[in-house]
Amino acid sequence: MRSTFLARTRKWIGASALAILVGLGGGSAFFAASSQMATAQVTPAAQITAPAVSVQSGFADLVDAVKPAVVSIVVEGRDQSDQFPDMGGQFNQQIPDLPEDNPLKKFFDQFGKGGGDNPQKPQRPMGRKFVAAGSGFAISADGYIVTNNHVVRNASKVTVVLDNGDEMTATVVGTDERTDLAVVKVDGVTDMPFVKFATSDARVGDWVVAVGNPFGLGGTVTAGIVSALGRDVGGSAYGNFIQIDAAINMGNSGGPAFNLQGEVVGVNTEIFSPNGGNVGIAFAIPAKTVEQITASLIQSGTVTRGFLGVSIQDVNRDIADSVGLKDAKGALVTQLTDDSPGGKAGLKSGDIITAVDGQGIDDALGLSRTIASKAPGTNVELTVWRDGAEIKIAATLGTLTEAQPTPPTPPAPPVDQPAAPVPSSVGVTLVPNAGGEGLLIQDIDPDSVAADKGFAVGDLILEVDNKAVTTATEFENAIKAVKESGRGTALIKAERSGAVRFIGLPLTKSQG
User: Fold this and answer.
1) Which SUPFAM superfamilies would you find in this protein's record (predicted)?
2) 253 is catalytic
3) Average pLDDT over residues 47-51
4) Is 97 one of the annotated active-site residues of the chain?
């Protein structure tokens, strides 16, 4: 179980880290193309049907029904890091003592990490050979099992331990690092108990029951409720996690969270914890995402996503005001990759994409998920806000590849300035950029609105109100034009360390 500490800082660059991908995808989106989706061949008789559950009577009947489909996954492999890869944390001999008859004990004892020392086996060097454990659940009678990618990462051997203690060797069918999902398969079975995914979305307040293998203690059941939806967890490219308060710990990774109908509503994958243990905040990948990704992995071993080829950021109130957009929604295009589908379609830096095929876009992550849900080659209609008006742009999506574009080279610092620094009306002192386009901020009034909005010395101002500026006079004329248009906020395109970002800069009366 990966641990996420939520005291993260949103820096100036912020959401532009969705960079160049729009096609990254996210939570509830259907990441795999429909033409590439498949369902495992299953034996309907093996599907588990849970009885109706009354909360007053407890969850025992539900657990009895679904527990046979939940498995423990033991992984052996080699890794070059200093910690074992399972569950985002270190085993480091922190596994509690296990009973002698526990089926996991002998796996950990091989490497001196079970319920006690094994004098027959010397400790293997850390960072090389490891044994780790996670959770999973069967989705077909013929042995397809869902788990997390980080559970089986670097695995040379995967062993599935059933609820009754039987052990079976499994092979990795496919993994998807972007969603942290994986599918493994046990061969030679035709009657494995399996569960199905929920067909309706979870709601805040719904009961959930988690079954898994925390700390190697397989078959552990915890219960709670859905605490929140659409969580964007730091370190994930996708967001849209389900937050639950059922007790989730290291080893629950890849295990299911069930609703009261015995359907899987999510795959437990991350926790928020300052100490590595349960504090009542855990995150699960929604069932719709899991179902689509695993179907693609079963069919082809990979996941294919649509690709627009633009860097984007969220639209806040300042940015919306600066361009005359009524609602602070949409995804603002900051940059386009070379020869990108978006560029070919006519998108420009500064465009705000507010809808795709008529589906509203709330933010950058929403655009990423929507584009990633489309098949490469799909024609889409983009609703774009540009120059104070709405236009439609038709685009044909490309294919998102794992290779990341090389970030732009930051501008060279000026050596000899041909002109003296010029104070501006918005609290920044500007000098021409000897290394190329734009104006460099040489100084900034710490009490100015510009400082409040995150501008800093060394930032490169490229445009004001979508107009390129290379001199202090051009900058002031652009600011003046914004004021004369009746708008109270100027849209500034700036660059820092090679990353481009738009910022809405309010123009107060005190700034002239």
Assistant:
1) PDZ domain-like, Trypsin-like serine proteases
2) yes
3) 74
4) no
Ordered domains of the chain (ranges, CATH): 27-300 (2.40.10.120), 306-399 (2.30.42.10), 422-511 (2.30.42.10)
Looking at 180, 314, 351, 465, which residue is catalytic? 180
| Inter-CA distances, 190 with 141, 144, 264, Å | 5, 11, 21
Annotated catalytic, 180? Answer: yes
Region 340-355: what's the mean pLDDT? 94
pLDDT band at residue 107 under the 50/70/90 scheme: low
Q: What is the pLDDT of residues 244-274, one digit of tens each?
A: 999 999 999 999 999 999 999 999 998 888 8
User: Has residue 298 got a pLDDT over 90?
Assistant: yes
Q: Which residues contact 134 (CB under 8 A, 6 or more apart)?
A: 1, 72, 73, 75, 86, 87, 147, 148, 151, 152, 213, 251, 252, 253, 254, 255
Q: Is 150 annotated as a binding residue?
A: yes
Please give the mean pLDDT across all residues of the chain: 80
**Is residue 41 a contact partner of residue 309, using CB atoms and an 8 Å limit?**
no
Task: State CA 415 to chain mean position distance.
Answer: 41
Q: Tell me the per-residue pLDDT of 458-480, one tens digit each, with 9 for 90 and over.
A: 899 999 999 999 998 999 999 99
Instruction: List the beta strands (DSSP E) in 319-361.
Output: 331-336, 352-356, 359-360
Catalytic position from the list 16, 140, 142, 150:
150
pLDDT range class, residue 337, cuts 50, 70, 90: confident
For residue 252, say whether it is annotated as part of any ligand binding site.
yes
Q: Is the separation of the CB atoms in 145 and 151 below 8 Å?
A: no
- The span from the CA of 98 to the CA of 108, in Å, is 10
Query: Strand runs (DSSP E) across 187-263, as ranges?
Result: 207-212, 220-231, 241-244, 256-258
Cβ proximity of 428 and 444 under 8 Å: yes
Q: Which of 253, 273, 340, 373 is catalytic?
A: 253
